[in-house]
Amino acid sequence: MQRKSAKNKISVIISRLKRRYPEELRTWLHYKNPWELLVATMLSAQSQDAQVNKVTPALFKNYPNIINYLNKKPVNLYPYIMTLGLYRNKSKNIIKAAHYIHDNFHDRVPKHMEQLVQIPGVGRKTANVVQGNAFELIEGIAIDTHCITVANRLFLFNTNNAEKIERRMMEFVPKDEWINVTHLLIALGRDVCTARRKYCENCVLNDLCPSSTVRK
Ligand code: SF4
């Protein structure tokens, strides 16, 4: 898609998606502070938010603060999160993240992208989610697997590289919509534009989308 036409199209796309998914303009992950959001977001990799929300109440009750993780081993977290995929790796990264934040940021989750992405297990997607939702600070667009699927169909990016998609979307999505566009593309990806199948006949963007199967 040409950059100019993408810019023209994006405001229509965003306003239609806001009308269609008005409840989706926030993260579905449950959290009470930036650390809980960071942990929940790390747990959500390749897991559904609803599954994560089932396990985090017990985890956060027993591990309320970063310091509670410091003298623990990954195996100590297994009982809480073993219903999630990749739980061994996630446990390891959460413990490492707690140590890193304890050692470098006095037990407070940092706000800035260059600090967040230094934390073990934290990439740009997790950093964007934490920044945007916990600190209302926006330095990028969080791109998850739903966003990759939908953005490739809508904008014909032809790449599965989340960072490339993020950079390209930052060129034409207005900055005040960077948080919203993530939630809206995820909503579309869960509803009608799933990785397995697209239900273009039920999609509010079918007249705008180059990948639509609806005859125009
Ligand atoms: S029209 Fe079809 S391919 Fe395009 S975004 Fe909607 S569901 Fe996805």
CATH architectural arrangement of the largest domain: Orthogonal Bundle
User: Which geometry do the CA atoms define?
Assistant: elongated
**What ligand species are in this complex?**
iron/sulfur cluster
What class would the helix/strand composition place it in? mainly alpha
From the alpha carbons, calculate the radius of gyration and give it in angstroms.
18 Å
CATH fold-level topology of the largest domain: Endonuclease III, domain 1
CATH superfamily assignment of the largest domain?
Answer: Hypothetical protein, domain 2
Number of separate domains = 2
Strand element count: 0
Strand content: under 5%
Order of helices and strands: HHHHHHHHHHH
Helix count equals: 11
Rounded mean pLDDT score: 93
Q: CA-to-CA gap between the ends?
A: 19 Å
Biggest sheet layout: none
Spans of at least 5 consecutive residues whose pLDDT stays below 50 are none
Tell me what the structure shows.
This protein is an all-alpha fold. It folds into 2 domains: 3-25 and 142-202, Helix-hairpin-Helix base-excision DNA repair enzymes (C-terminal) (Endonuclease Iii, domain 2), CATH 1.10.1670.10; 34-135, Hypothetical protein, domain 2 (Endonuclease III, domain 1). Helices cover 58% and strands 0% of the residues. The protein has 11 helices and no strands. The chain has helices at residues 3-20, 34-43, 49-62, 67-70, 74-81, 87-105, 113-116, 124-135, 145-155, 162-172, 178-191. Helix 2 (34-43) runs antiparallel to helix 8. The longest helix has 19 residues, at 87-105. The chain is elongated. The two termini are 19 Å apart. The mean pLDDT is 93. The structure holds iron/sulfur cluster. The site of iron/sulfur cluster has 14 residues, from helix 9.
